[in-house]
Amino acid sequence: MSTAQPIQTTDYPSTGPTLAYSKSGLRARLREATDKELLFALRDGEEAALDQLMERKTNPLLKLVYRILGDAEEARDIVQVTFFRLWEKRDCFDQRWSPNTWIYRIATNLAIDQLRSRRSRQKNLEPIRLHQQDAFTTRSRRDRAQMHEGEVMAIFHELAAELTEKQRSVFLLREVEGMASKDVAQIVGCRESTVRNHLFNARKILRRELLDRYPEYASGRRGGAS
Predict the structure, then answer these.
(1) What is the Cα–Cα distance from 40 to 90, expressed in whole angstroms?
(2) What is the pTM of this model?
(3) Which fold has domain 31-124?
């Protein structure tokens, strides 16, 4: 099995016209590098490797973190902190892990911390939330069930409020991101059997909440269809 080799970042001569193009040459090599090679270069203190990782990973991480938090601004903040942590912990990369597993673990843990912090704040607002919930009429609940497909994630975030942080993360990583159970276990820090348990419970809770709150979706009837 071949292993990734560190990228040489100092193979340019110290004199002559080639030196003027050394940085552009390095950037070109980094663009062709694997994710693991970029992490090796990052470990060696090469900031251009971080730039390349940001270019590759920002959008996937934004999607993942947004699915966990349901807030675009919070997701952007978490992803920024993720790259800061990548640089800060660059010496800690374990090459036995896949790069995505390591990077997603950092982002997921940050998102879970944010989710816990938010839930702690929301606990203090529970009486207000209950008052607002009582204000909904039966008609408004029916209207919320007749949504367009673009609002499916909004429904998920409402239902996912009943999940624990680990259940939500496991469900998204396994079902939405399509990651292997082994990788999910490494990201969330548990055994594969625990991943399966979290996934089973998450599916059960989501289905229960869907049946309760959005029976039109659960039965396949939408938009007033008979």
Answers:
(1) 8
(2) 0.70
(3) Rna Polymerase Sigma Factor; Chain: A (1.10.1740)
